[in-house]
TrEMBL record, chain A:
Organism: Dokdonia sinensis
Family annotation (Pfam families): Ras (PF00071)
Keywords: Nucleotide-binding
Origin organism lineage: Bacteria, Pseudomonadati, Bacteroidota, Flavobacteriia, Flavobacteriales
SMART domains, per the entry: RAB, RAS, RHO
UniProt name for this protein: GTP-binding protein
Automatic annotation (TrEMBL), chain B:
Modified residues (4-aspartylphosphate): D437
Record InterPro entries: CheY-like_superfamily (IPR011006), HATPase_C_sf (IPR036890), HATPase_dom (IPR003594), His_kinase_dom (IPR005467), HisK_dim/P_dom (IPR003661), HisK_dim/P_sf (IPR036097), Sig_transdc_His_kin-like_C (IPR004358), Sig_transdc_resp-reg_receiver (IPR001789)
CDD domains registered for this protein in UniProt: HisKA, REC_hyHK_CKI1_RcsC-like
Residues in coiled coil: none
Alphabetical keyword list: Kinase, Phosphoprotein, Transferase, Two-component regulatory system
Histidine kinase domain: residues covered: 142-361
Superkingdom to which the source organism belongs: Bacteria
Protein's recorded name: histidine kinase
Species assigned in the record: Dokdonia sinensis
Reactions listed under catalytic activity: ATP + protein L-histidine = ADP + protein N-phospho-L-histidine
Keyword Transferase carried by entry: yes
């Protein structure tokens, strides 16, 4: 029997949360930026070491101020995925501040940090920028090329099951 | 009536569903979504998985705004209220359809977010450019500095060589070397200036100066160049042009030299007209229009907009030489001076470059008198011999200064090899002026100057000191002032400028009752 787990995608607008989700669930990608308003939810069943888990993924409208997230969107989450745009520093310069807010309000929910759109940046420059701000993402991904997308969601699912 | 309207409104906008806590439908009015009793809501949309979490939440009622739900090919935006009845294990869901409202919100947010992202991307690109530009400027400044030092010796010794009784052929050859080295010097200066301007380190320093004198010097120098090319050079000075104005003399001179040099460079036949006018004479601040008109090669209409960019040249085949930095410097300097540079040009007929800048007017007649009296005093006092001390560690630079001084019998030169040596010689001999290299072993020029200014002997502590250095950053110039230096000359040293500066400082020193002779 499959268990269902709620995963919430968080981050500034335009960082590629919806694109990551579509790449993961539908294996599609569009260059067009379509704003998400409110919340858009998709699900996908994955198998982790023979165990089935249905990920209910909430793609929440982006914001740079995490204190503005509606609590109802985040309630019951088994994991947060914090997505930033590797090509726009403004989307990760306040990462620490936002993480502090999450750990204060949701201390038991693990957060995975993802740098998306790595296809648009020079890897060395990005590493230098991240190091200088002491940011250590769990994954660097590209919804466009599919790089690390499957892996990151599977990794999240595995951790969710482990914590269950 | 109202009851009927309410029913009609609710029927079109709201759906009420009752389910158990496992999301199985117990009742539904099916106003919007058709959901048969007994079905699981989770099979309609993944949002309804949230029902299983509600039991763990402290509140009985929860609100979920703007939830996108696709059903049978249609996209809805619902605000959803949930209410849990814990005793009976039932959940009531109120789905309120705000699709039209949220669609209009979506349009606004789409436009807003797109513009913010575009702005962010532009900022990132700009930051990247600034980093690259910073690297380029630093590189240019360092390379230019390294070139300046040996260039100093080349330019200086060529001047010395010219006065060693050469025959005609030798003099011609030396003149070619001189002309090439001066071109190189001007290119290095352009590179340094452009790197300073782009790094935002070039400051405009407005001071009062004699505009007529500056124009006379410019006209004299360019008339000679024009004559050499057999082209006519005309100068028109506006009647109401004030003698003394307040502006950055150095940078104004640089703009005009660039424009006049270009006019001569690109004109093979015909004439050049340099006019300086002002439409006003009574105000404290007046616009001055500097216009350089030539009958040269002219510029294509398509290139007129790009000629002020760095590394752009009017002539692509390289017949005229140069780096293509001159007009870029002109434009950037004119902007720093809050002026305006314009160009009108016809290919094959010629060009008009017009620089307009606001300048303060100084009607100080005393200043003119003072200037005249200084000039005559300076002439009178030339009979006596001035003793100058040079602090310089590099032998070739010592040699160059010795040769330059050898042609000026009014001056004698002693040499100290470092700052400490300068202090020793000052204790034994009296000097009218010190020329101080900044970078020296044992004790540098800054340290030596600071010690001289604190010397207990008044004659020594007040002695004029001129810094001689290949370093030309504003920081070095500022530091030289802070330690008490009276002048700053950048290597390669211009012989005329050196003696004018020394003369001026020695005269001032003597007026204050100091000095040897």
């Amino acid at each position: 029997m499959s268990v269902s787990k709620k995963i919430v995608l968080l981050g500034h607008f335009g960082v590629g949360k919806s694109s990551l989700l579509r790449r993961f669930v539908e294996d599609t990608f569009s260059e067009n930026y379509i704003v998400t308003i409110g919340v858009h939810i998709m699900k996908k069943e994955v198998s982790i070491a023979g165990e089935q888990v249905t990920l209910i993924i909430w793609d929440v409208e982006g914001t740079d101020d995490f204190t503005k997230y509606r609590p109802s969107y985040l309630m019951g989450a088994a994991s947060f995925i914090y997505v930033f745009d590797a090509s726009r520093e403004v989307t990760y310069s306040d990462l620490k501040y936002n993480l502090e807010h999450l750990s204060e309000k949701y201390p038991h929910v693990p957060v995975h940090i993802i740098g998306n759109k790595v296809d648009l940046v020079d890897a060395n420059i990005l590493q230098e920028n991240l190091l200088s701000q002491n940011i250590k993402p769990d994954y660097l991904s590209s919804a466009k090329t599919g790089e690390n997308v499957e892996q990151l969601f599977e990794n999240v699912a595995a951790q969710v099951l482990k914590n269950d | 009536m109202i009851e009927e309207l309410r029913k009609d409104f609710v029927k079109n906008t709201t759906q009420i569903i009752v389910s158990d806590t496992e999301s199985r439908v117990l009742q539904s009015d099916n106003n919007i979504l058709s959901i048969p009793t007994g079905n699981y809501l989770t099979s309609v949309h993944p949002f309804f998985y949230t029902i299983s979490n509600l039991l763990e939440e402290p509140l009985d009622e929860n609100y979920f705004y703007c939830v996108q739900i696709e059903n049978l090919g249609k996209n809805y935006f619902f605000d959803i209220k949930t209410k849990i009845y814990r005793k009976s294990g039932q959940v009531a869901l109120f789905l309120i359809d705000f699709t039209e409202h949220y669609k209009s919100v979506h349009k606004i947010k789409q436009a807003r977010n797109e513009s913010i992202i575009d702005f962010n991307i532009a900022q990132e690109l700009n930051n990247e450019l600034q980093v690259q530009r910073g690297f380029k400027n630093k590189f240019l400044a360092n390379v230019s500095h390294e070139i300046r030092t040996p260039l100093n010796s080349i330019v200086g010794f060529i001047q010395v060589l010219q006065n060693t009784g050469l025959n005609r052929e030798q003099l011609d050859l030396v003149n070619i070397v001189k002309s090439s080295s001066e071109n190189l010097k001007s290119i290095v200066n352009d590179l340094l200036d452009i790197s300073k301007i782009e790094a935002g380190r070039l400051e405009i320093k407005n001071k009062r100066f004699n505009l007529h004198l500056l124009l006379d010097e410019l006209v004299k120098a360019h008339q000679i160049q024009a004559e050499e090319k057999r082209i006519t050079f005309q100068f028109e000075r506006g009647e109401s042009l004030p003698r003394f104005i307040v502006l950055d003399r150095l940078r104004l001179n640089q703009v005009l030299v660039n424009l006049l040099d270009n006019a001569i460079k690109y004109t093979q036949v015909g004439n050049i007209t340099f006019s300086v006018t002002t439409p006003s004479k009574n105000r404290r601040k007046i616009p001055i229009v500097f216009e350089v008109k030539d009958t040269g090669i002219g510029i294509d209409a398509e290139n007129v907009t790009t000629i002020f960019e760095s590394f752009t040249q009017l002539e692509k085949r390289g017949l005229f030489g140069g780096t293509g930095l001159g007009l870029s410097i002109v434009k950037q300097l004119s902007e720093l001076m809050e002026g305006k540079i314009e160009v009108e040009s016809v290919k094959g007929k010629g060009s008009i470059f017009r620089f307009t800048v606001e300048a303060g007017v100084s009607h100080d007649q005393k200043a003119e008198k003072k200037l005249r009296s200084r000039t005559s005093k300076s002439k009178e006092s030339k009979n006596s011999k001035y003793r100058v001390l040079l602090g310089e560690d590099i032998e070739v630079n010592q040699l160059l200064l010795m040769r330059i001084f050898a042609d000026h019998p009014d001056y004698s030169l002693d040499i100290a090899k470092n700052g400490e040596h300068v202090l020793k010689l000052l204790d034994h001999y009296k000097y009218d002026l010190i020329l101080m290299d900044l970078t020296m072993p044992i004790m540098d020029g800054f340290d030596a100057t600071a010690r001289i200014r604190n010397h207990k002997n008044k004659h020594i502590s007040k002695i004029p000191i001129i810094a001689l250095s290949a370093r030309c950053s504003d920081e070095d110039i500022e530091e030289s002032k802070e330690v008490g230096m009276n002048g700053y000359l950048i290597k390669p040293i211009d012989e005329r400028e050196l003696f004018q500066t020394m003369e001026k400082l020695i005269q001032r020193y003597k007026r204050k009752g100091q000095g040897v002779s």
